[in-house]
Amino acid sequence: MKFKLQYQDIIINNKLIRKGDRDCDRRYSAMKPFLERYKQDGHFNVLDFGANCGYYTWMIKQDYPNAQITMVEGKEIIKDIYELNNQVKGVKLINEFIHLNELKEMAKTKHYDLILLLSVLHHFNEDVLDDLIDTFIQMGTTVLFEIDEPDHPNYRRLEKPVYEAVMKKKPIQINTWIDLERPMYYYSKDEIVFNTHVESGMNLANQHTWMINNQFGWFGHTNLYPGTLNLRSQRPINFCKNQAVKVAMGYFILPAYLNGYPIFSMMKDFSPNSTFIEILSPKKLRQKFYLMDSDPVTLSFKKDFIREGRNGYLNCNII
After folding, report:
1. How large is the angle between the packed helices 24-35 and 55-63, nearest 10 degrees?
2. 192-305 maps to which CATH number?
3. What's the pTM value of the predicted model, to 2 decimals?
4. Which CATH entry fits the domain spanning 10-189: 3.30.70.1450, 3.40.50.150, 3.50.50.60, 3.90.700.10?
5. How far apart are CA 203 and CA 248, in angstroms?
6. What is the pLDDT of residues 284-304, one digit of tens each?
7. What's the mean per-residue pLDDT of the chain?
């Protein structure tokens, strides 16, 4: 079957059949560090809403075979592409246009670990945007948005209302290290967010990362990069001691996310209310994300890992 030029690249049986209008490969490259958070999950459920030709469904399914993905797309072409990819198990197609009232009904019975809203929101009317976003957040643990910058016009001239509606949720941008025509952000109701910036270190981490790597069972066969990324937070970070793992040289470690990318955070047990934190990763993070001193980065944790404020999210022991 021959396909006309489409918005997205067309993939059949893991092969690129036809390039589309948008740079899908670059967009997926921006998503891949964020998606690594799902590597440890046996199964996770994805809603690809406004899937177009299904490019991101097929790419995620290829990289994460255990993912269960539902595509929603009203255009007829997706039906042909879906049928030609009939060997892909765990992918479901809803080939219809779904409006807000139908979404609200859907949210009563459906829940997804991840919802993709890639260049979708501007197809809805301005007066429903807040309600629409709230409905998706109700239906998903994490929602990934791709939207226009407020000064980058789209064909419906809704770039500014869409941007402002998404920014109300204080989402985290995941493509700070790679330029995209439309930036990507995510919102997770399970995470607490800290705004930080990169600071210079004293190369002390080389002395203890190898000890931690040998002791810390969470890493399995993964080797740590021999050094840490040093961050300074705008407000204090207090680990919940009963959630953290104590390792060599009096350090406590918790999993976290750096601009959405899974990493491990490390803090000394004698530093309550500290604004300084070290980051461990198998990757050299400065190189992976092109970071320099003073660059802003967003650090986030599962809410039950962190104690914040007088009451906090948990009755936990503060380190």
Report:
1. 40
2. 2.40.30.30
3. 0.90
4. 3.40.50.150
5. 17
6. 999 999 999 999 999 999 998
7. 88
- For helices 100-107 and 129-139, give the axis angle rounded to 10 degrees: 20
> Tokens 């461990």 belong to which residue?
280
Alpha-carbon distance of 182 to 194, in angstroms, equals 24
**Which residues on neighbouring strands pair with residue 16, listed in sequence order?**
11
Q: Show the tokens assigned to 97.
A: 């246009």
∠ CA 142-147-150, rounded to 5°: 130
Amino acid found at 294: S
203: left (phi over 0), alpha (psi -120 to 50) or beta: left
Would you list the domain boundaries of the chain?
A: 10-189, 192-305
Which has more pLDDT, 127 or 282? 127
Cβ-contact 54, 12 below 8 angstroms: no
Average pLDDT score over residue span 212-233 = 72
Distance of CA 236 to the CA centre of its chain: 24
pLDDT above 80: residue 211 = no
Strands (E), the chain: 10-12, 15-18, 45-49, 68-72, 91-94, 112-118, 140-146, 172-173, 184-188, 191-199, 229-237, 245-246, 251-258, 261-268, 274-280, 296-302
